[in-house]
UniProtKB/TrEMBL annotation:
Residues 6-60 form the HTH lacI-type domain. Keywords: DNA-binding, Transcription, Transcription regulation. The lineage of its organism: Bacteria, Pseudomonadati, Bacteroidota, Sphingobacteriia, Sphingobacteriales. It comes from the Bacteria. Coiled coil: none annotated. This is LacI family DNA-binding transcriptional regulator. The keyword Signal does not apply. GO terms for molecular function: DNA binding. PANTHER family: HTH-TYPE TRANSCRIPTIONAL REGULATOR GALS, LACI-RELATED TRANSCRIPTIONAL REPRESSOR.
Amino acid sequence: MKRHQTTILDIAKELNISKSTVSRALTNHPNINPETKKKVLELAEKMDYQRNMLAISLITNKSYTIGVIVPEFISSYFPKVIVSAQIEASKAGYNIIISQSNESYETEVKNAKVMLANQVDGVLVSITKETRNYDHLKIFQRKGIPIVFFNRICEEMIVPKVIVDDYEGAFKLVEHLLQTGKKRIAHLAGPDSLSISKGRLNGYLDALKKHHIEIDEELIIPYDLSLRKVKIYVKHLLGLENPPDAIFAVNDPTAIEVVQTIKKIGLRIPEDIAIAGYSDDYASSLMEPKLTTVAQPVDEIGKIATQMLIDQINREVADWKATTKMLKTKLIIRSSTVKETTSNPE
């Protein structure tokens, strides 16, 4: 039997009204009788009516779809941002297509092509640790499709961006470690290709300089965010002639791996060595000891990035604005850096 998909005409015939009246009811048009609108919506639900987005896109030249490209789902950061973005997009009548690149540049390029093939009206992007060429993202600009970066941004593309003050967050965190009496603070830094890595490293360095702590290059280890390598780096740091008394990791997944390694070695946290992360991952407040970290306003990041993107979608290309929105972070002090937490109760 041939499957029949309910159309506006079916609803119109059933209620003995015009197709245009049904269309106005389904699109929440202001010039529609509330009682008629109620009848149309109830019947549409009963008849399992689905809007023909292909037909709508042909008429409006819009797909009402936003693409989201993120580098990973290991941490809770990106899922949280996406949830917030989805809520904001839905308010404006947009659907979301989500893809994650698994920290692979090649996969990111493929994901960008998928977004183009699906004719998204705009795209939210956070790049991978491998991304150094941005041709696959510049295509969106050439085609008049707006793009907004968040968290991990492309600095050479003049487009809207939503970031946090990574420098200030790292500065405050390292200053906290110094105030607890730590002097030899190591830093597991992220790839220098990422702006977030640079901001956090510079915050770390300037906090040491402010407190007249000599910079020891042996204590700074850039790494590619591959968690399997964390154990090697921790053992290397602890094997130094003058080992660190604290480790500041570029993100929480790294810091959590550091904690697990330290505990297996048998050192006490924070008495023998303090550990701190960045991003306030969901697991950071559940582990033992609870992880001191820097919280980012993830809900606000997703909301603002989506609002900026929809604003671009609704503008002519000549009126696009390359605004950068920088948000504040918050230091969360927990028991991985102080024995008793009183200033930030959980």
